[in-house]
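Tokens help. One example:
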Amino acid sequence: MRARAMDFVYWPDITIDIARIRDQSTHGPRSAKSNPMQPPSDLTLPDYPFQMISSDYFTFNSKEYVITVDRYSNWTWYKDQSQVPKSL
């Protein structure tokens, strides 16, 4: 919220004012950051190909794709999913 406000207006001490208003509101304490982000956990490396894979959907140039990556060899496979029906 603070970064967005700082992009639009010049306001001396904006950080202090936003924190004060947030703390005084009824919804502010609930929406404040509660826990710091945890550092990335150590990933177990696979022992052989296709033991562990990662997959994700993404959109590029108005087309939808699915990508699969083998965690052992970093082999990458992707397929255009734009022609696949949306409901099964």
Summary: The chain has three helices and three strands. The CA atoms of residues 18 and 24 lie 10 Å apart. Residues 14-24 form the longest helix (11 residues).
